[in-house]
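Lab meeting, action items carried over

1. Structure of the two-component assembly. Owner: GW. Status: complete.
Input record:
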Amino acid sequence: MTARATVSANPLKPPARVKIPRQHPHEQAAGARATNFDEVSQGFDAQRALVEAARCLECRDPACTRGCPVGIDIRGFIQRLLVKDYAGAAARIREANALPAICGRVCPQESQCEATCTVGRKFAPIAIGLLERFVADWEADQGPIVPPPRPPARAARVAVVGSGPAGLSCAADLARLGYGVTVFEALHAAGGVLRYGIPEFRLPKAILDRELDHVRALGVDIRTNVLVGRTATLDELFVELGCDAVFLATGAGTPTFLGVPGEGLCGVYSANEFLTRVNLMGAASFPARDTPVRLGREVAVIGGGNTALDAVRTARRLGAERALLVYRRSRAEMPARLEEIRHAEEEGVEVLLLTNPVRILGDEGGWVRGLECQRMELGEADESGRRRPVPCAGSEFVLPVQTVIEAIGQRPNPVIQATTPGLAVGRGGVVIVDAAQRTSRAGVFAGGDLARGGATVILAMRDGRRAAAAIHEYLHARAGHSPIPASEVAS
Amino acid sequence: MTFPIREAIPLAPTITRYVVDAPLVARKRQAGHFVIVRVAEGGERIPLTIVEGDAAAGTITLIVQAVGKTTRQMARLRAGDVLADVLGPLGNPTPIAVPGAVACIGGGLGTAELLPIARALRAAGNAVHAVIGARHRDLVILEAEMAACAQSLAITTDDGSRGGKGLVTAPLAELMETQRIDAVYAIGPLPMMRAVAELTRPRRVPTWASLNALMVDGTGMCGGCRVTVGGVMKFACVDGPEFDAHAVDFDELVRRSRMYAREERIADERYRTACASGSVA
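Predicted assembly:
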């Protein structure tokens, strides 16, 4: 990272800056938001954003950027923000992040950039996520997207399989380098997990649409209704569609079920099905939209990750009088973001910890009538380092619920692995990659949840950026060119 | 990109045959494959079996019966109209048995789904014996096409208005009495496929049923189409759609397929009211 502007536009000396309290955005009241799908946080207005930006110490060696998986020049964009050069701030972010309005909303900043923020050592860290969101939303308010200047076109074509965060970020970087990029998406709408998985109240679909338009404005072609592995195999992308390299980013979309009795009952959903019905298909608007979703008055969601939280909060908004989150470990082990858990509880979600589902009970018509659980206690640490839950003998009890939603994790969709000879696959069906996202097949790269098995939007985006850099290097070398100048290599 | 309809030809009251431009699908489709169709924006995703494919013309053939909102909406489309989305080919191709004598049993619209399989079985060198059933003679479809690839063809109707009165199981039982049948392929309403399975089970004739479970994405992502086969959870979309009929838990499948009966009725009534009032183009 090269040092940029050294003269600060901020008139305050550092001790004065850190005395400014961290700014908070307006949040929709819990009672109101439990009945609508509007965003919880309204984000910063310009005034609050400027106050927050003034807290930044503009460190000579910014630790925040090291905490950012895609390496955004955070100090740089905050400095642009401070002089109200919002367009400049947005451009600075977009150099490293193709989806700023999304990352500003769904990134776990508390464990990334904000965790390494120097101010955060003694005070509340800079609200980097909210500032990123402010800049991206400001940009969106400026009217039609102005396509950035196109670099000279390169002859090579790259196929990106999957239009989720990994695929979009790879496609954007490659397009900026002048490659012809086609993104293939199996569903009828692009965005991957951002479309079907993350609910409107965390990521409005209008925001996603806008970010997709930004990626298209770079020259990226997004083709829906193509399931690679079925509509065309990976090898056909090379041979028949003339691609020179492929980035696989099909995510982890295959739901896992607990394997307890009763999963075939009506009223049992995978979180994927439930969320897809609502987010992708618009089931909350049934019958104005065609796809329905059936939900009981009492709903149990099983799991403790962000998907479980998304499902239980969605259930609450769809009118569940009692929305229960059933998790077999304790609160400390929950993988979900603390903010999401807090939001859920404020909205009336009941969190049942150390509770393990053992059986789903049905009525005579084959519908769910209850979830039998047993109490757990924490024993020794397991291989993940978390204390293993152990059942308490004789502690079984029944939760009276009419809907059970299982959110216990997803695996990669196996279609491409099964139809691509020579593609090395590891435990759980993940595609094996090296540090440059290269797979066992020449010219084939992979990343995101397909290679990780289930992680975050931003880690998927980092993989996409790394893959773009590696693809660039691969195509460059293949074309017999001299090594890529360092200035062209993505960070 | 949309998917233009080249032809829309009525086959029977409520049943229409569509030829749709879907070049990538046409190139790859095999007997047993299906597509997920979204008729229009805001619409649901429904699985439809690919009846025929013409790789050179870039088209696939779909046969659809108007039974609910989405299929009724599709029934109003004509040549020149478009389908919003077509994804496929999905599912696994039908396992085609080693040459022998096979019975192909189609019930109702299932006959359309059966035709490509019967043709593939015939092309593989099997002797194909076909039985097609319908509620009424007007709903008997693809008789000539089935006859063209079958050694024998029996027809039954519920009301006896055409062929034998009763269920497809009667001609099948007769077939199995009079000759060796190596495998049975049954496609139709769940009670029909279950009845066929019960008939062939004691004789240990390998029997395939094509399961049209409720689906959302059709690519293995939602798990809504899960069925229990031999005590193991399978996804009809990616593990099927054909399964060993003797191992399928039909009770569970029947219940799950009715899960949205109420909503299907609401959507259908709403759409019919809209059509009647002229507010649908």
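2. GW to write a short summary for the group page. Key points so far: The first helix of chain A runs from residue 14 to 19. The longest strand of chain A covers residues 368-381.
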